[in-house]
Every structure is written in C-alpha cells, then in structure tokens.
Amino acid sequence: MRYILLNPGPVSLSEGVRKAAVSSDLCHREPEYFQLQERVRLGLLDVYDCDPDEWTAVLLGGSGTTALEAMLSSLLPRDSSLLVIENGVYGERISRIAQIHGIDYQAVKHEWIGAIDSERVEAALAGRAFTHVAAVHHETTTGRLNDVNKLAELCERHGAGLMLDAVSSFGAEAIPFDSNALMGCAATANKCLHGIPGLCFAVCRISALEKAAEPPRTLYMHLPLWREKQDSQTTPFTPSVNGVLALDKALDELAGQGGWRARHARYTQLAGEVGRALSRHGVEPLLSPGESSCVLHAYLLPDGKSYDRIHDELKQRGFIIYAGQGSLVAEMFRISTMGDIGHYDMERLLAALHAVFSR
Question: Which CATH fold would you assign to the domain 15-256?
Fold first, then answer.
C-alpha cells in the first residue's frame, strides 16, 4: 500500500522526484555536481523572482531547523539585538536558538492559537532599538499563517531587519521579498517544494551576509562560508547530493505546474475538500476561516474520538495525519495537503474520512 502523507513534511513524492533522487552517483567535487548545485540555487531564487544581484540561495544538509539556526547564528552580528515573535512551538524554537548562541534577545509571547498582536510588537520595537526581528511565517503548531507583511512594515518603520522561518511556507505562500526589511528566510526541500528530506537552504539578502557575525558562531552552519564556496563552484563539506538531485527535479515540476501561486491554489482546493468533508461530520476547524495557511489546517477532536483512534483507522486506509503538540495534543489533529496528491488519492481520502468519522 502506498501511504499518502498528510503530515506537514516530509511529503508524498512524485515518481519523477523519487527517481531523480537516485538517478546518478555524483562526486561532490566534480564539475557535474557544481553545475547541478548552481542550477538549483538559481532555481530557488526563481521561485519568487528574486534578483540574483540582491539575493542568494545557500544550500545546507539538514532539516529546516538547520537552515533556521544557520540563518539566525550567521545573519545576526555580534552586537545585534533580536525581537522574537512567539505564537507556537516554532516561534519558541527561535528563542531557544538565540539563547543557545548567546544572542541578545527578547520575546513577544502569544497564546499558541492567537494571532500576532501588531500593537504589542510595535510597542516592543518602540521601546528598544532592536536591530532584527525573527518570526515564523506558517506556524504549523496550529496551521496559522502569520501576517508577515505587517511585520515587514513594522520593521521598515523602526529600522529593523526581518528574518523569517519559511520552512512550511516557501513555495506555496507569498513572502515579502520586495520589503527592504527582509534579510532572509529559512526553508527546506521536503515541504512545499516536494523534494526529499535532508536538504535545506536559506535565501538571504547579499548585503546581510556581508555583515554576518564575526567571528563565526558555528563552523558547519556559518552561511558566508557556504556561500563563498558555492559561489566558487565548490563546497566546504559533503552536501546532500541526492537531495540536490531530487530538488532539481522538484523545482522543474513546480515551474511546470505554474509556480508557487498555482501550488497555493492547489493546496487551497484540496484543503477545502478536506474541510468540507470533515464539516459534514461535525468536525470543526481550530482556527477561524482565513487564518490558516493553505498548507495545513488543524481540527478539533470530536467528542468520543481520540487522536490515536483516528490516526490508526486512517493509516489502515493508507493516510498519515498528524497529532497536536504540547498542551493541544488532546484537543486537535492536523491535516496537510502538500505533496504529490492526485485526483484518485483525494477520492480515496474523502471516502476514508467518511468511513472514520461517520462511526
């Protein structure tokens, strides 16, 4: 049985991406690999039409958190001060990274199911001269899509640079690359881009990389080192070669399907079908309409049904869903519509949802 992954990454792969991942045995010190590497780096910039004279994509081996930690530890100079916006697990993770690296930071904390309070954020920015702000774009704890356009406006007003955790939004949601405040975003291959796990990247403003932390806070995750080597057609350490092969194909497929806007529309369509199917059985969404990302929606557990039971019954039918986190674990479950999900898969899923929730 082929499982359809409805968790927020990794995703169900297309046959083309799966085959591409093992299509060649490449040495990472040969010109064939460097040509591939450069094509993928430029392809990542093309997703949002980023000017390569202003932006660069830096590839790293690891999960999305690797890219996030690399971006924060690299782009924050030694004398920086960081304002962290928290409204879920991943916002809190930003604070933890800052703490581990000894970065001067302060957090504006919100309830996990709450939207970002822009008035509180502006008050914090007005009360202290923060050099940078960091936030999660799509907070998959609840599925909330945070208003990063508003954050970018606040950062512009107060002269702060903005860094985004775009791990669960890059390739499917609008990102404000046209804002002068945006310094970089961290993302991964194995979510909205439909690549395989083990490869992540940061898309950074070149001017921000040129002002990076010195001396470096890390060896492996120092983005200026990776950028320097990748620009010079080499690599400082062994990269995720198979991940780069897969992402090369995944980017081709994204472009062929109409780019991130078409992917956004597709995810929205599929999420709507799932939501309507669940609504017919009295299953309510956690957030109000328009607050969730197209990528993932969270739903309240109905009376008399545990997550484990729902998960196991759907898994028996070929579908993998995701539990809540932290204090929400007993209240909700999550369904994502990323990945290679076709018409037949959706017909099966809707039938499976009916069978599980009509009991």
Answer: Aspartate Aminotransferase; domain 2 (3.40.640)
Quick one: three-class SS letters along 17-66?
Answer: HHHHHCCCCCCCCCHHHHHHHHHHHHHHHHHCCCCCCCEEEEEEECCHHH
Q: With 80 as the cut, is the pLDDT of residue 248 above it?
A: yes
Neighbours of 228 (CB within 10 A): 14
> Would strands 82-86 and 132-136 be described as parallel, antiparallel, or unpaired?
parallel
Where do the domains of the chain lie? 4-8+258-357, 15-256
* Rounded mean pLDDT, 149-158: 98
Distance CA 118, CA 299 (A): 26
Rg of the Cα atoms in the chain: 20
Domain 4-8+258-357: CATH architecture, name and number where available? Alpha-Beta Complex (3.90)
Token pair of 188, please?
A: 């991964």
| pLDDT for the residue numbered 341 | 97
